[in-house]
Amino acid sequence: MRKMNHRQLPAFALSIMKSLNLMIILYLTGITMHSLSGYIHEGSALYFVMKVKHIPVEPWKMPVLSIGMFLCLLLLFSIPCKHNIQLLCKAAVELSVAFVISLSLNFSYTGIVLLIIADTMSYFSNMKQRILLVASICMVYLLLDYDLLSVRYPIISIEDCWGYYNSHVQSVLLGIRNILDSLNTLVFIIYAIVLILTEMQEKERVLGLNEKLHMANEELREANLKLEEYARESEKAAETRERNRLAREIHDTLGHSLTGIITGIDACVMLMDIAPEATKEQLKAIADVARQGVKDVRRSVKALRPDTLETMDLKSALIQLLEETKRSTSVQIDYQIQAKLKDFNKDEEDIIYRIIQESITNAIRHGKAKKIWVQIEREYNILKIHVKDNGTGCSHIQKGFGLHHMKERLDMLNGTLSYHGEDGFTVDARIPIRWGTEGEND
């Protein structure tokens, strides 16, 4: 059996009152109709009329009128009211019906008014309005009292109606009536208490919800403040990353071009006297590198991407980089590109290109290398870049700007960087790739 919610208790108590009032009406009309019918069958109706000095209604009319009007009252209870004026009109009609029911019962029972009070109380949450309306209905309840009305109007009392029975039976019947009447009053009191307690609990629940809502709003406000702070920090971090990226790109572009130009000019100085024609060719190559460097600087400032990668694929761009470096610096570069350099996005292509460019630039600038070996191959889902030179090498490597940014770039691709300075300088980069697991060559 499902447990009843505390908010359902007032409605449950009100339904008990409705059932109890119907039971009382049936009891009073049944006993009264039986008593009046007994007078008629025994032939003592004239004695009864002379005693009460008033002709009662026909016995069958009492239950028809009282029960019919009670059903009308239940129908009125089911009509909802949204405004106070509607509620006042409804209460007035209900009181009129209650008056007819009490009249048909010779005002022997007026507890029906308590049922109207209980139904009306459920519509008001404002205590002042509720007290005012209940007080008005209670005044009507008092005016329907038999002892008060019998002073002015001829009314047959319930005791006279039930005079057909002997005194003992009559006492028992009246006692049952009083018990039912008192029970109705008790249920009404319980209903009023339950209704008030339920409303108090509901107010406490609403206050609790409002407090929780206030706390939630405070937490939301704090979360918004933290989110704004995080957004500011993220913006600063993005600015820092962009500055670093710009510094890397300019370093790579200018560094590579200037290294090639310086090395080429040094070669021209040595060749100028002994091979003027070769010197001219060398100077032309240096001029080409300088022009390409200017283009790359412009591209770096504009989009931070090598110009060659905008016009050709990654493999062709790398080959052009290596061949131009050979021509401008007279450094011998042997390269093998055994991996399929396709299906990379632009950021990945930029990073691969810059790593090879920086490795060659460092070999020429710092290692004074005369020969460089470059190998790019694929091992399952790893792209391997190997750059080695025959330069001076370095026994105690201090990670400078170039190596630092190579490491940063590889971190973006979850790659790794290793290097050593014995027997020249060697750089090994390993980059996870996304296009399959089987080795493929061009």
Summarize the structure.
With 442 residues, the chain is an alpha+beta fold. The protein has helices at 9-42, 45-52, 61-77, 84-104, 112-121, 127-143, 146-149, 158-161, 167-271, 276-302, 307-311, 314-329, 346-365, 401-412, and strands at residues 332-337, 371-379, 382-389, 416-420, 426-432.
Largest sheet: 5 strands, mixed
Structural class: alpha+beta
Low-confidence stretches: 436-442
How far apart the termini lie comes to 78 Å
Strand content: 5-15%
Number of strands: 5
- The side-by-side strand order for the widest beta sheet comes to 1-2-3-5-4
- Rg (C-alpha, Å): 53 Å
Nearest-integer average pLDDT: 78
Number of helices: 14
Pattern of helices and strands = HHHHHHHHHHHHEHEEHEE
Quick one: overall form?
rod-shaped
Helical amount:
55-70%
Q: Would you give an account of this structure?
A:
With 442 residues, the protein is α+β, with helices and mostly antiparallel strands. Helix 3 runs antiparallel to helix 4 and helix 4 (84-104) runs antiparallel to helix 5 (112-121). The chain has helices at 9-42, 45-52, 61-77, 84-104, 112-121, 127-143, 146-149, 158-161, 167-271, 276-302, 307-311, 314-329, 346-365, 401-412, and strands spanning 332-337, 371-379, 382-389, 416-420, 426-432. The chain is rod-shaped and about 165 Å long. The chain has a 5-stranded mixed β-sheet, covered by helices on one side.
What is the secondary structure topology, with strand pairs?
Blueprint: H1 9-42, H2 45-52, H3 61-77, H4 84-104, H5 112-121, H6 127-143, H7 146-149, H8 158-161, H9 167-271, H10 276-302, H11 307-311, H12 314-329, E1 332-337, H13 346-365, E2 371-379, E3 382-389, H14 401-412, E4 416-420, E5 426-432
